[in-house]
Amino acid sequence: MKRTLSCGLRISILSLLTAISSAHAASNFNECKTALAEKAVSQGVDAELAKQVFDEISFQPRVIELDRSQPEFVQTFPGYYSKRVTPWRINKGHEMYEKHRQLLQQLNDKYGVPPHYLVAFWGLETNFGTYKGTMPVLDSLTTLACDERRSNYFTQELMVAIALLEREALEPANMVGSWAGAMGHTQFMPSAYSRYAIDGDGDGKINLWDSEEDALSSAANFLSQLGWQPGFRWGREITLPEDFDYRLTGYKQQRSLSQWNKLGITKADGSPLGEGETEGYVVVPAGHKGPAFMAYKNFRVIMRWNNSEFYAIAVGKLADRIAGESGLMASLPELPAYSRDDIIRLQKTLNEKGFDVGKPDGIIGPATRVGIREYQIKNDMIADGFPGLDVMRAMGVTPAADSTS
Fold this sequence. Notes:
Keywords: Signal. Residues 340-395 form the Peptidoglycan binding-like domain. GO terms for molecular function: peptidoglycan lytic transglycosylase activity. Pfam families: PG_binding_1, SLT_2. Residues 1-25 form the signal peptide. The structure is a single chain. The protein is built from 17 helices and 7 strands. 39% of the residues are buried. Helix content is 51%, strand content 5%. By secondary structure, it is mostly helical. Among the domains are: 13-71 and 132-226, Orthogonal Bundle (Helicase, Ruva Protein, domain 3); 340-394, no CATH class. The longest helix has 36 residues, at 7-42. The strands form 2 sheets. It has a 5-stranded antiparallel β-sheet with strand order 4-6-7-3-5. The chain has helices spanning 7-42, 47-56, 61-68, 77-82, 87-99, 101-111, 115-126, 137-145, 151-167, 190-196, 212-226, 257-262, 297-305, 309-322, 340-352, 366-378, 389-394, and strands spanning 135-136, 176-177, 235-239, 255-256, 266-267, 279-283, 292-295.
């Protein structure tokens, strides 16, 4: 007779194994700290400062846990958007716009980044500075630098963070941020802080935690360096014709406004999209039942800050709302809360049916969207590349959760 472990016993064993692993990691951590301190000194950090800093750094098991964890459910665009472009953020954005109007206009004149975009980034990153993270940055970076998974990257970020500590006369205890080491009002990683952060308040220092002026000025410089195109929008909401071919969506299908206009695409209110050689591409983040967007060059610049179409749309629409424009014209569809296991089952089924989407990983990436689109075309469905309920049912996948997100 097959025996199975009780849930309580499995949890106890898992907890014991985790504790043993953490104890082993903490033991190796001290050796790693010593090596990192020596590396910092070899790169020019004062030896006494390096000793003081590393003596105070401690292993953060929670950081490793967060680095390894994956969300149980797949985030949908309606769930993401509705939690970020909120009345509170819009109203607070207006307030911050007025507070920093003069500085924001100066930054616009110098860098070509309009004020409402800078305020939108600030709002999405830290709720306008009300939540900048609580993890000790140097501890987090050291913990990740001593972990094998991404040691080289975080070692480099740690070295930059310590150099910043010395350069800007920062207090280690005040250097708090995300578990991965992002810092300040605009959540810059140390390398971005070092390269792009600038003194916006004229005090001779750059402090992204305590100076809103430094943070906004640094964001403008960062976006300019990333390639922001002055005078151009991020994108806009559009209306697609009923017979639109969804194979024309995505970054690889860029066309001029004149070409899109000929295909029957209009602005969301039905007015003409316009003529010209400016190129854009169509994004349908919630499938054919949700809103559609035309994304321009600055959309891709936003994605260089955070490589997510959801994020770029949220920044753009929040900026629009802060500037006084209306909200979405199209309604956000209710979508099931797919679990990662749901998507893995979908991916496995697509592979089995001959639509190669690569190794099933529970992430709806470009390969999975292409596979879904090819399946939809073959089965006379609207080929939007989106895992709608019709696709999931056809694949025999029933969402694990009945709630919507």
